[in-house]
Amino acid sequence: MGGNSNVGNSQVYEDGDQKNVANSVLEQEKKDNRFHEGKEHSHKALDSKDERTIANKLERETKREKEDDDESEETKALKKDPTLPAKMHGNEPSRGAQIDATIQAEEEEELRRKGKA
C-alpha cells in the first residue's frame, strides 16, 4: 500500500481555518492580560505570610472602614421601603417585597404601640 490516498475531497485536507498566530502577538496578549489574571478576593487580608508592610495593612483597613459607611441611595431606600427599588426602576414590586413591606409596617406599628403603652 502506498502513502497516498485518493479518498475524499482535497479541500478537506487543506489548512483553511487552521492558521497559526505569530508568537509576538501571543506574547503581547500575555503582557496585556498579566494584571487581570488573579481571582477576586484571592488574597486574605489577615494572612500571616503576606508581605505587606504594617503601614499598607493599616491603610487598607481604613479604606475598608470608609467603604462600609458609604451606602448607595438605593440601599438606603431599600431599608426604608422594600418596594421602592422596583418602583424607582419603573417595575411592579415582587410579591416578596410587598410582603416585606407589610411586615415592616406591622412591626413599626407594634413598636409605636409598645412605646406609648
Give the gist of this structure.
53% of the residues lie in helices and 0% in strands. The chain is an all-alpha fold and 117 residues long.
What does this structure look like?
This protein is mainly alpha-helical and 117 residues long. Helices cover 53% and strands 0% of the residues. The protein has five helices and no strands. The longest helix is centred in the last third of the chain and has 22 residues, at 95-116.
Descriptors:
single chain, 117 residues, mainly alpha, 5 helices, 53% helix
Give the beta-strand count: 0
Strand content range: under 5%
Distance between the termini: 104 Å
**Global shape:** flat
Helix content: 40-55%
Figure out the total of helices.
5
Structural class: mainly alpha
Low-confidence stretches: none
Question: How are the secondary structure elements laid out?
Answer:
Elements: H1 23-33, H2 54-69, H3 73-80, H4 84-88, H5 95-116
